[in-house]
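for the record, two folds in this file. i put them one after another cuz i was lazy. first one right below, seq on top, structure tokens after. the second one comes after a little note so u can tell where it starts
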Amino acid sequence: MRVNHFLGAPRFPHFICYPESFGHYYEDPTHSENRAAGQLASYNWHIVRGGKGYLRVGNETIGLQAGSGFLYGPGVEQTYFADSLDPWDIRWVHFKGQGIGELLQGKGDSEVWTFSWKDAKRLDELWGQLLSCGIPSLEGGEAHVSALLYEMIAELVQHAGDIQGVPAFGRRSKLIQAAEWIREHSSLPLTLEQMADAADYSVSHFSRQFHLLLGRTPIDFLTECRIVHAKILLVSTELSVKAVAEKVGFASSAYFIQRFRKFENMTPEQFRQLRG
């Protein structure tokens, strides 16, 4: 069974991303694609929901099944096909847009990116929404489809992982849980050792992996959580700057002001006057 949707160019040409076509294939053992380098000028993204299929990369054949997927960048050579006995159930989209390479962090640019999307729990729901859109209306439909695709890509980039990194998914979840724990307890005098314990990591490994995943150190993340809480108190209460500093977890008002200025390029009092 093959479901295909093809879209014309959007009226607004500056969407960050926009699908050219998308669809859903299942129970089709004949599904096979073989595209030479440079033949397809758009991104080509598939997720596997069931069954089995294969990619050919050079002399290597990679098997994929439920919970995995692949993405080719524009112009990349493509060879993939369904298993003849247990054909895959796949959802796919071809898309273009401005800034896609940066959003995808270069994934798929030079060779196929294979990934697991088991941690991206919302992804399949978003795919279902895209398929239900069909051909978008000219009155707001194009913006909706573009925004939906953007959310899908963001969900993929944030939560999917390389096929070769499957054992890392549990560790990634631990780090996310640790970050949430830090956010919830940010008003307490947390140490780096306590934050690492929340993820059951050594301090050095926790610091390195946390930075790789969240793009900042655990201490910077803790400070950011405190600053965000402080902003709310500065705007919604009449607490003094010293009281706000104590309430959000800073040891002194002087240090609070120093860190606030670094994050916001203004003092807490200036922020209160600006946003009050």
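(here's the note) second protein begins now
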Amino acid sequence: MAKVFRKKPTSVIRTNLSQPERSRSWFNFIKPIIVVLCLILAYGVYNQWNNWLSLLDSSPIKSYALTHKTKFTTNADIRGVLSEAPDLKGYFGQDIQELKDRFLSLSWIRDVSVRKIYPDRLSITLLEHVPVARWNDEHLVSQQGVVFDLPKDRFDSEQLPAFYGPDISSKKVLDAWYKIQKDLESRKLVLKSISMDIRGSWSIVLDNQVELRLGRGDWLPKIDRFVTIFPEIEIPEEKRLSYVDLRYEHGASVGFIQR
């Protein structure tokens, strides 16, 4: 008996998509476009945020209050800073960092904090440098070793010790001052000024106007040598001791000037 083979039906490929499938396909196509548009919109909002907030301001900032009393900064200084261009904006539109930068342009201001108080006021905290020495006879040095200036009519610096040196060395000179001052106190000597040249060579002046030329390196043994030889120095009549040069490995040289 002959066998009959029946052909299996072939699968049918659908060419028409259903409505949900067409929707998903269309969404996958436009999704990257939507993401790009959202990013552009977000950037535009971020970039124009301050401008939009400034539209809410009815008037510019009109007044300020200091959180504590200042020693060197006057109300005229503060008003002058706040009146600089560009003009003050309102509560929402005013950039706080811009105001901080204005105050820090005053040489004697060490740090500043500015806070906006709604609707049109500022709260200002000013931290000032405290002068501890004169610098190169023209400027001042702060407790942090920062060189700054003050109007001469606001502070008498004549009683301060004198520092000399390259401007970039102010912190190093200040640190050396405290160390040498402490060393001299134990020897009943008073330090009046200190200087360092561009080669790192040191010299100091005592309160009796005698200059000690210490040179480079450790100054302690040189100061000890001065204390040892000072009582033995014979000073000619009508003259006084001007300097003691201790830069030698042993001994020292001295100089005199007319009284």
